[in-house]
Amino acid sequence: MPPSPSRVTQADVARHAGVSRTTVSFVLSGREDTRISIEARQRILGAAEELGYRPNLTAQSLRTRKTYTVGLVSDIVASTHYAGEMIQGALEAALERDHLLYFAESGDDPDAERKLLQGMLDRQVDGLIHAAMSTRARRVPEQLRSQPSVLLNCLDESGEFASVVPDEEAAGRQAAKLLLEAGHREGIHVVGGRCVTRGAPDGVYAGRERMRGIEAALAEAGVRLSGVSECDWSAPRFGYGAARRLLEAGPRPTAVVCCNDRLAFGVYQAAAEQGLSVPHDLSVVAFDDSELASWLRPALTSVALPHREMGRRAVSLLLSPEEPEPSVHRIPMPVRRRDSIAVPHR
């Protein structure tokens, strides 16, 4: 294997341009307070480009105390391609600002999380992003207090940090308005609700926010929600069971808002067993816009989680000239309109 080429130094650029190394240092560092001619500056910049000069960031960081790196520590974000969009968005935004992103995952283990955060601090990252797979309020680790930090897809119980989260309440409003625009005024049910389970007696953040938006949009239109089937959101079978009970009990709903795409899959199955057609007999709208939404037949209208934009916004806040303000930044959730909503038929 041939040896890798040696790094081009400022001394190499100086020799190529026929000037002193000090002059090269002044020009490449962007100093304007020196008496260096325009011709000499252009010659130095041309030599640097021709030789492929890259600045020594380690040496630069000793002077500027900046490493041009960002650390992102998450629980289980990278375990799925779906939520991995957050990391992709953060990577893109960091590279656009000439920063590298260090990423690590704790597996939701508090001890591992502490070690990873300390590892980032030991590497003198310029800032930290603390990310979560599911939106939730949490107690912020002490290590974040020593460095500019932003929370991604989680909320700070103390209110001391900037947080980036999806605008779930507005998404709930959008889902309800899609049905209202199609003419639905009665027989609207929700499958999933606040995700009240034995392990989460108060439901989950996304469930509470989505329900708040759905109820508000319907109330403003003078429409009453016909019912809510609370269930676990984690698998299609819970949506199937809730929909089957709903369809067998009567009166039959005209539309169902599913709190995620997995539940909608189960609702499709229950409707088919009852001889019902989506959307002719039953309109369905859901949240998250996973790959499942476009694969269902008919394709499912879903309100998307803006993971990529959330990752980008977190990096943008972190690397802004001023330290991030301790506020909540809610990212809009776009609607993916497909074929699962129609005018009601009775």
Mean pLDDT: 90
Radius of gyration: 27 Å
How far is it from the N-terminal to the C-terminal residue, by CA? 75 Å
Q: State the strand order across the main sheet.
A: 2-1-3-4-5-11
Query: Quick one: how many beta strands?
Result: 12
Q: How would you classify the helix and strand content by structural class?
A: alpha/beta
Order of helices and strands: HHHHEHEHEEEHEHEHEHEHEHEE
The coarse overall form would be: elongated
> Helix fraction?
25-40%
Percent of residues in beta strands: 15-25%
- Low-confidence blocks of residues: none
Biggest sheet, in brief? 6 strands, parallel
Helical segment tally?
12
Task: Describe the 3D structure.
The strands form two sheets. This protein has a six-stranded parallel β-sheet, sandwiched between helices. A six-stranded mixed β-sheet has the order 7-6-8-9-10-12, with helices on both faces. The mean pLDDT is 90. It is elongated. Helices cover 40% and strands 19% of the residues. The chain has twelve helices and twelve strands. Strand 9, helix 11 and strand 10 form a beta-alpha-beta unit. Helix 5 (85-96) packs parallel to helix 12 (307-318) and helix 9 crosses helix 10 (261-273).
